[in-house]
Design brief:
This protein is an alpha/beta fold and 429 residues long. The protein contains 18 helices and 13 strands. The chain has three domains: 12-235, 3-Layer(aba) Sandwich (Rossmann fold); 259-341, Tyrosyl-Transfer RNA Synthetase, CATH 1.10.240; 346-428, Structural Genomics Hypothetical 15.5 Kd Protein In mrcA-pckA Intergenic Region, Chain A (Roll), CATH 3.10.290. The strands form three sheets. A six-stranded mixed sheet has the order 1-6-5-2-3-4, with helices on both faces. The protein has a five-stranded mixed sheet with strand order 7-13-12-9-10, covered by helices on one side. Strands 8-11 form a two-stranded antiparallel sheet.
Length: 429
C-alpha cells in the first residue's frame, strides 16, 4: 500500500513552479520521469518526508557582493522555503586555486588570511537572504585539507587531460597557446568532490559553471551515490541591460548600497530588464510574474507601478520594509520635483472624446495612440502607433510600448512624453 505524501512539503507541481523559475538549464530536465530526475527526487522527498540536500558553493575571492551574486543565493532560499536543506558552501580551500571560469589568465592566489576575512563578510551578507537558523554553512577545507597525496592522485586518475581540455576556458587558452597552470586543472575535480562529501541531491551554479557541476555527477556516480541534479541560472545583466552586472563596469547594485540608492538604481532600469529582475531577484513564483506581465500588456497595470513594486520588494529584502517605503517616498518626491521644475504644459482631455475609450474591456481603458493625438504629441493615431513601436513614448518617466492602458493605471495627472515633447494631462470626467 503506497504511503501518503508528507504534509511538510507542497505538491511537487507547486514546488517546481518556484524552483524552476529563472533556471537556464536543469540536468536531467525537470520534466524528466527518470528515477534520478528532479521531479522524481521531489516526489520521493515528499513521500518520505526527507528533505533534499541543496548546495551552492562560493569562493570568497571578493569581500562585497552585488545583486548579480545573489541569484544563486535566492534560488537556495526557494529550496529553503520549500522545506529542503540548503548548504552554503564556502570554498576556502578551492579559493587557494581560484576558479578559472571565464578567465584567460591564471588567478592570483589569495592568502589564508584574505580568504578568512572575505568569508566572514560573505556570511554577513548572505543571511540577508537565507534563514541563518536553517542554513548549513560548511567550508570545503573540512575535507580537502585532509586529503593526502595518494587521495589526490586517485581523484585525478578518474579524469583525462583531454576531458579537462573540453572545458571551454581551457580549450581556448590551449588553442591560443596561453598558459594553463597544473593546479587549475584540479579545480573542477575538487568542486566535484565537494558534492560527494556533502551527498548533494542538487547543486546550483551559473551557466558558466556547467563543466564543474557535471564533474560532481561523475564523482558521485563513481562513489555509488545518486548523481546530483544540476540547476543552472543565467548571468544577470547590470543596470545597462547589456553587460553582466559588475562593479568594474559601473552597472552594479551592491548589497550594501543604502536603501535610497538601491531603490533609485532599480527605478532606472528598462521595462524589459524589470521582468528579468522580477524573475531572478524576488521570491514571487513565475506564474504570478507571468500574470503581472499580462496585466501590464493589457493595460490594467502601469509598468511604472510594477517597477515601483519591484524596487520596494528588493530594497526591503536587504534593508527593511520601513526603509524601502522611505526610499520610495524620497524617490517620488524627487521625481515630482523634477516634473514641476520642467513646468510642463497641461492639456485637458475629456474621457468622452471620440475613439479614446476602448469598448472591449470591463473597466475604463484608454487607447494610448488616440490619447497622444488628443494631447497634441502626435499628428495622428498612425504616427502615435509608430512612435510607440519605436520605444519613443514614456508615461510618467517610464517607456511604454503598449496600445491601451486602464484609466486607473494612468493615474490622476499623468505626464506623457514623445521624443522631446511632453504634456501633463488633466482629465475631464
Amino acid at each position: 500500500m503506497p504511503t501518503q505524501p508528507h504534509t511538510a512539503f507542497l505538491p511537487v507541481a507547486d514546488q517546481l513552479d518556484l524552483i524552476t523559475k529563472g533556471a537556464a538549464e536543469i540536468i536531467p530536465p525537470a520534466a524528466a520521469t527518470a528515477p534520478d530526475g528532479l521531479r522524481a527526487r521531489l516526489e520521493d522527498s515528499r513521500r518520505t518526508g526527507i528533505p533534499l540536500r541543496i548546495k551552492a558553493g562560493f569562493d570568497p575571492t571578493a569581500p562585497d557582493l552585488h545583486l548579480g551574486h545573489t541569484v544563486l543565493m535566492r534560488k537556495l532560499k526557494h529550496f529553503q522555503q520549500l522545506g529542503h536543506t540548503v548548504i552554503f558552501l564556502i570554498g576556502d580551500s578551492t579559493a587557494l586555486i581560484g576558479d578559472p571560469t571565464g578567465k584567460n589568465v591564471t588567478r592570483k592566489p589569495l592568502t589564508r588570511e584574505e580568504i578568512a576575512a572575505n568569508a566572514e563578510t560573505y556570511k554577513e551578507q548572505v543571511f540577508k537572504i537565507l534563514d541563518r537558523d536553517k542554513t548549513e554553512v560548511r567550508y570545503n577545507s573540512e575535507w580537502l585539507d585532509k586529503l593526502g597525496y595518494y587521495d589526490i592522485v586517485k581523484l585525478q586518475a578518474k579524469f583525462t587531460v583531454s576531458q579537462m581540455l573540453e572545458r571551454e576556458d581551457f580549450h581556448k587558452r590551449f588553442q591560443a597557446e596561453e598558459s594553463i597552470a597544473m593546479h587549475e586543472l584540479l579545480y573542477p575535480i575538487m568542486q566535484g568532490y565537494d558534492s560527494v562529501m556533502l551527498e548533494c541531491d542538487v547543486e546550483l551554479g551559473g551557466t558558466d559553471q556547467k563543466f564543474n557541476l557535471m564533474r560532481g555527477r561523475d564523482l558521485q556516480r563513481d562513489a555509488g551515490q545518486k548523481p546530483q541534479i544540476v540547476l543552472m541560472t543565467p548571468i544577470l545583466e547590470g543596470l545597462d541591460g547589456v553587460q553582466k552586472m559588475s562593479k568594474s563596469l559601473n552597472n552594479a547594485i551592491g548589497i550594501k548600497d543604502p536603501a535610497s540608492e538601491m531603490y533609485g538604481k532599480l527605478m532606472s532600469i528598462s521595462d524589459d530588464l524589470m521582468w528579468r529582475y522580477w524573475t531572478f531577484l524576488t521570491d514571487l513564483p513565475q506564474s504570478q510574474i507571468d500574470a503581472m506581465q499580462a496585466d501590464v500588456a493589457s493595460g490594467s497595470l502601469h509598468p511604472m507601478q510594477a517597477k515601483k513594486n519591484l524596487a520596494h520588494s528588493i530594497t526591503a529584502d536587504f534593508h527593511s520594509p520601513a526603509e524601502a517605503a522611505a526610499a520610495a517616498e524620497s524617490w517620488a518626491t524627487q521625481f515630482q520635483q523634477k516634473g514641476v521644475a520642467e513646468d510642463l504644459p497641461v492639456v485637458e482631455i475629456s474621457l468622452a472624446s471620440e475613439g479614446l475609450l476602448a469598448t472591449d474591456t470591463t473597466e475604463p481603458t484608454l487607447r494610448i495612440p488616440k490619447l497622444l493625438q488628443l494631447a497634441g504629441l502626435a499628428s495622428s493615431t498612425g504616427e502615435a502607433t509608430r512612435k510607440l513601436a519605436e520605444n519613443a513614448v514614456s508615461i510618467d518617466g517610464t517607456k511604454f510600448t503598449g496600445r491601451t492602458l486602464s484609466r486607473k493605471a494612468l493615474g490622476d495627472e499623468p505626464t506623457l512624453r514623445l521624443g522631446k515633447k511632453a504634456m501633463r494631462i488633466h482629465w475631464i470626467e
